[in-house]
Here is the input.
Amino acid sequence: MTSKANNIALEELKKKRSCRVKGIRLLADRLEAGDIPLVLTEPECRLETLMRSIDTARELQEKIEDIDIDDEFGVELEELSIVTKAKLMSLICALKTADETIPAVPAYGGPTRARLPKLALPQFSGNFSDFKNFIGLFETLVHNDQSIPIIEKFNHLLSCLSGDALGTVRAFQVTETNYEKAMASLKRVYDNDCLIFKNHIDALFSLPKMTQQSASSLRNLIDTASSIYGSLLSIGDDKKISNAMIIHLVLSRVDPVTKEKWEEQLEYEKLPLWTDCERLLNRRHQHLSAENSDKPKQEQKAVTSKPHNRSSFACSTANTKNQQCSYCNAKGHLLTDCSPFGRLAVMQRFEFAKTASLCINCLQQGHSVVQCKAKKCRSRGCSHHTLLHRYTVANKTL
Here is the structure.
C-alpha cells in the first residue's frame, strides 16, 4: 500500500477503535457512579457486550500497530478493559450473593413458599445409560436459561463432564460459536439408543441370583428391574423394547462372525427391529449353506470319517476346565467362549486384549502376534482374532 493509502486506512481504524473505547468508558463511568440497575440479568448481559467490545478494540489496535508501530494506546486500552471488567464482575458477584441470601418475595400477594436450594449441576463421565438423564437436567438448568451467557454455559458444560465424555468436547476452544458444536458432538456420540439399551440389558443380566428367600433381596431386585424398565421406555415403547430384547437373546447364541455382521450394518441411533435381524440371519444362513456345498465331497467325507482321539479330547476338556477366563475370571471356559466378553463392542474387546497383554491373533497370553502360530481371522485372513474383526469384507455378500 502507498503512504497515502496507509494514512487513510489508519484513520479509519482509529475511528472504529474510538467508537469501541467510547462504549467501554461509558460503561466504566456508569459503574463508578452506581448507575446500573441492580437486577442480575442486566449486568450479565452487559458483561457479554463488554467482552465483545474489548475483543473488537484489541483487534483494531493490532491492525493499527501493524501500520503505525509508534501507537501506544494499546497499554491504555488494556488497563481500561481490565478495570471495567473487574468492576462489572464484582457487581455480578455481589448481586448473586444477595440473591442467595434474600428470601423470595411472593408475587401478587400470593401464598409464601419456602425458597428451595439450588440444584447441583449433573455430572456425566461417558456411561451411555446415564446420558438422557444428564442432558435433560443440563438443558433445563443451563442450556435453556436465556439469562446465562453462552460462554458461561460452555464452562458449565465442561465442569459437568469427565472421562471419555470430556474428551469428546475437549478439542473445541471455549467460544460462543463452538458451544453449540460441542453440544451437538456430545449428543452425536452418546445419544445412542442401541448402546443405551445394551447397557441397561447388561445391568439387568448382571443382577445377582437370589439363593435364598429374602425380603430385602427381592425388594432390591424388583426396584432395580423396574428402574431399568422405566429407563428403557425413554428410548422406545414396549414393542421396540421386545424387538431389541429378542435380538439381544438370539445374537448371544450365534457365532462371533455372524454377530459382527449384524453390528456392522446396525444403525445405532434407533432400536433395531426383529424383521431386520431375521433378514440378515437368513442371508447368513444362505451364505454358509452355499459355502458348505462348494467343499469337495472327499473333504467332507474325510472330515466325517476321521476317528476321534478320545484321549486327546479328554485331555483338552480337562485343560479347559482347569483354565480361567481372563475377562470374567470364571473357570471352565476360555476367553473366546466367554459370553460377557462376546457381548462387548468390537473396540471394547480390542482394548481389553491390549490392556491384558493378550496376543490379538489367538487371545492367549505368553507371546506376541508375531510369534503366534494360530490361524488368522476367518473374515479376511488378517493377523487378529475373529472376535476383534471390525471391518466390512469388500466384494463379499452374506
About this structure: The chain has four domains: 3-100, 128-191, 195-207+220-293, 327-398. The radius of gyration is 32 Å. Residues 3-33 form the longest helix (31 residues).
